[in-house]
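User: I'm preparing a small set of examples for a lab meeting where we compare how different chains pack in three dimensions. I only have the primary sequence for this one, and I'd like the structure in C-alpha cell form so I can line it up with the others. Please keep the answer compact; I'll paste it straight into my notes.
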Amino acid sequence: MAVRHGGDVAGTLGLDRKSGFCKSTSIFYSKREPISLPPNQSLDVTTFISSQPHRGTTAFVDAVTGRHLSFPEFWLRVERVTACIYALGVRKGNVVIILSPNSIFFPIVSLSVMSLGAIITTANPISTSGEISKQIEDSNPVLAFTTRQLVSKLTTANLNLPVVLMDGETWSLEAMMETELSESRVKHRVELDDTAALLYSSGTTGKSKGVMITHRNLIALVQATRARYGLEQRTVCTIPMYHIFGFGSFTTGLIALGWTIVVLPKFDMAQLLTAVEIHRSSYLSLVPPIVVAMLNGAKEINSKYDLSSLHTVVAGGAPLSREVTEKFVESFPKVKVLQGYGLTESTAISASMFTKEETERYGSSGLLAPSVEGKIVDPDSGRVLGVGQTGELWMRSPTVMKGYFKNEEATAASIDSEGWLKTGDLCYIDSDGFVFVVDRLKELIKCNGYQVAPAELEALLLAHPEIADAAVIPIADVKAGEYPMAYIVRKAGSNLSESEIMDFVAKQVAPYKRIRKVSFLASIPKNPSGKILRRELKKLTTSKL
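Assistant: Understood. Below is the C-alpha cell output for the 545-residue chain.
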C-alpha cells in the first residue's frame, strides 16, 4: 500500500494556503507543521516513550488512595512487569486482555505488553460477560489482567484463560512490580508496523470489530500530542482508559511529555473537581456529557471549588454544540474549550484545536491534525469535492489503523489502495481549513461518548417472542448526546409494553446500550431491498417531540 503522509506541500501546484486545499490533487493538506517519525523501522512505542526527554517528576497519582509514582518508579515497574509476563510465556504477536477501571497500573500493563511486541486489547468494565466473551473469542488472548470485582466476567467468558489480579495478593500485578529483575530476556525485533493495540469499535452490522493500532500509529499520536500541548502539565484522568480517547492520552501520549496524571477510577463530579483543586490541574479531557454537567452546575461549582489552575478543557468523543461551548466559557471565563475529532480507526486524532483563537470558530472540530490529509467525497457519485462542500470525509495519515483484526473484507471497505480511510462522517472544510462534522453516514449512535450499533439492539429485540419487527435510531439528549430509541411492531395479539421491552434489553447489554424510549408502529418503513429507512423514523420522532 503506497501511502504518503502530509509532509512538505509548500510547492504543491494550486495549493490555497488559507484553506489547505489543492485544486490539482483535490486534497486538503494540514496547515499544521508536519510531525517527525523515527527513521528506525525497528522500534516499539514503549521504548520510544521512555526515551523522550522532559523534566517531569511525578508521573501518576491515584486520586483515591493518594499513591504517587515518580517517572523512575513508573518505568522500573514497566520493566519488571515486562520481565514477569515474558517469564509467563507472553511473546511477540500474543494478545493480552486488560479488563479494569481506570488505574495508575493500567498504563504499566499496557506499555509492558507492547514493549514485548505483544498486543494489548482493552475491554470495557461495564460490558456484560457475554460481550466480553465475544471479544475473547475474537482476539484469543493468552493472559488477562483484571480486578477482584471484575474477574467473574472473565472466568464466565473463558475458564482456561490465566488471570493476573491488579488488586490481589497472589498472582498479582503488585507482586510483579516488586519482582527484582534477573537475567536479561531475549528481546524480539519489533517493527513500527507491527500491531501494538487491539481496540474494539462497534460496527454498523452490530458485530464489534478489532481495530489494529500499530506502534507507528501510537508514536505518531505522541508526536501530534506534543505539537498540541507541550511539556509538563497536570491533568486529571476521568475518561475511560480502555477507550481510544483515554488510551491515547493517558497510557501513551502525555506520559512521553512528562505530564502528571491524576487518575480517578470512574467519573464522579465531586471527586473530579476536588482533584483539580488539590492537584492544581491545568488541563481536563472530557466528553460532552461531563461538559454539560459542569455547565448546569456552574454556579455551585464556582462557589464551592477553587478551579483557578484550570485553563483548558479538551472535549472529544462526540460533537459539542456552539450553544454549550459559549455558555461554558461564560460560566468559566478563564477556561478555553479545545474541541477535536477522531475515530478509533484514526488513533483518536483527525482534527483538533490548538489555540484560543481557534476555539472561536464555533461548531468546528478545528484544523486537520499534523500530517493529516483529507478529501471530501460525494457518497453517491464518488466525485471529490472542494472548499465548503459537504460529503464524506476521507483521511490519510500516519495515525490511520493497520486494519480490522481478522476481517479483510471490512478493512478493504474502509481503507482504499492509496491508504485513504473512509470515516463514514459527512463533513465540510471551510475556506480557513476548519473541519465541520455535519452528520454520520454510519448508523452508529453516540451515547455518552460510547458507540452503539443499532443492528446489535435490533437483533436482540427480534429475539423477543412477541416482537415482529424492530428498528433502533438515536434520539437527541442534552446530557448524553444521543440515546437509543426503538420502534417496535408487536406480533398479533401482543400487549407488550414499553417498560417490558426496555427491561428485556437492559438485562443483556451494557448500560450505555439500553433502550431509553419505545414507540409502536404498524410497520417499519423500509426501501425495496429491505433496508430500514432510518431518516424517515428520525423525521417521525422529531414531529412527535
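A couple of notes for your slides: The two ends are 49 Å apart (CA to CA). Confidence is low (pLDDT under 50) at residues 1-7.

User: Perfect, thanks.
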